[in-house]
Amino acid sequence: xxxxxxxxxxxxxxxxxxxxxxxxxxxxxxxxxxxxxxxxxxxxxxxxxxxxxxxxxxxxxxxxxxxxxxxxxxxxxxxxxxxxxxxxxxxxxxxxxxxxxxxxxxxxxxxxxxxxxxxxxxxxxxxxxxxxxxxxxxxxxxxxxxxxxxxxxxxxxxxxxxxxxxxxxxxxxxxxxxxxxxxxxxxxxxxxxxxxxxxxxxxxxxxxxxxxxxxxxxxxxxxxxxxxxxxxxxxxxxxxxxxxxxxxxxxxxxxxxxxxxxxxxxxxxxxxxxxxxxxxxxxxxxxxxxxxxxxxxxxxxxxxxxxxxxx
Amino acid sequence: xxxxxxxxxxxxxxxxxxxxxxxxxxxxxxxxxxxxxxxxxxxxxxxxxxxxxxxxxxxxxxxxxxxxxxxxxxxxxxxxxxxxxxxxxxxxxxxxxxxxxxxxxxxxxxxxxxxxxxxxxxxxxxxxxxxxxxxxxxxxxxxxxxxxxxxxxxxxxxxxxxxxxxxxxxxxxxxxxxxxxxxxxxxxxxxxxxxxxxxxxxxxxxxxxxxxxxxxxxxxxxxxxxxxxxxxxxxxxxxxxxxxxxxxxxxxxxxxxxxxxxxxxxxxxxxxxxxxxxxxxxxxxxxxxxxxxxxxxxxxxxxxxxxxxxxxxxxxxxxxxxxxxxxxxxxxxxxxxxxxxxxxxxxxxxxxxxxxxxxxxxxxxxxxxxxxxxxxxxxxxxxxx
Lengths: 311, 385
Hints:
The complex is a heterodimer of chains A (311) and B (385). With 311 residues, chain A is mainly alpha-helical. Chain A has helices spanning 3-34, 41-62, 67-94, 102-123, 151-173, 175-185, 187-192, 197-223, 230-245, 250-274, 283-297; strands spanning 131-132, 141-144, 147-150, 225-226. Chain A has eleven helices and four strands. In chain B, a hairpin with a 2-residue loop joins strand 2 and strand 3 (211-212). In chain B, helix 5 (89-115) packs antiparallel against helix 13 and helix 10 (227-250) runs antiparallel to helix 13 (274-300).
């Protein structure tokens, strides 16, 4: 394999890893504050991407065709609407089930994911077909031998990095972040200290869902196509990434995201090389098989949550 | 007359069963969409009125006191339905599908409802059974009864690969293992050319000791649809699986499983081998799913990866939850509703996943026990403390 091809793989892997990491950060945030898995996260991402697309079409209809304005408005609309959706999910579906078995929360959000998916499929105009996503970023590229560095990919990568760093700073450097961490560590004590528990939970869900919307837009801009089913796989991958890293840990989630995309790339490259005749489509089979084996080895992920059970 | 409506009498249970059978016959017989909707609305009103006048408590008590009679009456009800539609393919196919799905859901019920082992890959284990029978019937001369058995064993065997991760993890982590497996399985089927890829495979009908199930029976002038054979077979399987699950629940094994679900630490402290019971429930559940799958594949004559998606696994889980987790009776009713309703009401076919998902959300929010919540075990029928 040439160096150029290798760097192409690495770059694609980084891009995918960034999207996975953004999804995984959401999972890990929710798990941190409420100890729940919000499985509809991947579908929130998909709805975010569709919200962005609808905004784009609306802007086109209004005659606004400057790509910068379009992109800004799309990002704003998608992330705000998903933040509201995320907070609403937390308020009406997740918080009411706090005292029920954890399985019920998982199930209710799984089912909500189906509802979102099916709603887009059935009620978005021709929602069951893949939709072309506009190319809004400059299409310039630089070639180094067989390796092409596309400007839009680079910008997406940087944007993703900026979003993750922003969330990180928010959590570690601000009073709000302090409150989130306090709730994550011990909700009861946090309440005694005068932290508005419900507000913090809703806010965390809003932030996580905002990240999902950004991830959805990135995904759309990178592949120039979105479809109603993309959230399911991305959700499961994001969940896997968060679990590989260790639920509740933001660094773990980022690490897990990049690890998962590395697994996929390794699968795509090495499987056809090792077993001639196998297709690269086995990469997901390979990646998920490794995740399952990994779970048997490190049941609580690389950076394990500190846990002691009171009985 | 008073005696008949005593909670200790078998009469209310028999009347309920007769009513349900009558409704099922009318439902299967109805052709136009409006008559089906009318029937369902009528049934809902009748059920509401019955609940108002305390019939439900009466019927429940009667079912509990005469569980054998009640079970026999269910079998009789299915036989009556099958006999009435003896020459029509479609109602019999649906009946057999419902019965096979009941077997799968009984398996899931063992896992979710009793041992508390989550399994979001129910459709994948069902699919393992389907594909096993497709491969074996096409490529080997193995007798079909053995094929069905192998289907069950394959599902249990492949499921046992997941045992280690499932045991080592708990809660959400365990859910991920089965979800990942379900998706892995589907992707594997789609890209694997030896198994037909996305197009799937065809397979011949079942043959037991020279009895070809795909041949219609001929009695003089009357011809009986060959699906009647499958209904008989599926009815037998469902009855055996049902009896097995009920017996397990009543036995000390059921008690151990309940203890494991409710509190692992406490049950380990009381000397219950948590790992053993989780493995038992997981493997037995997958075995049932595989068994049903291999018969289902031979009945429909066709398998394709699209029937074993994550969405299908979710539908199976919603059946268990809708019926009332841990209650085999509730699950039977829920399976019938979930499998038959979209087949008959064409306009909800498209919306069925949306509908079920919405229903399950409502159930989880407002009635977590399901439509027919599980009753406390009662070891001495009719005994009141």
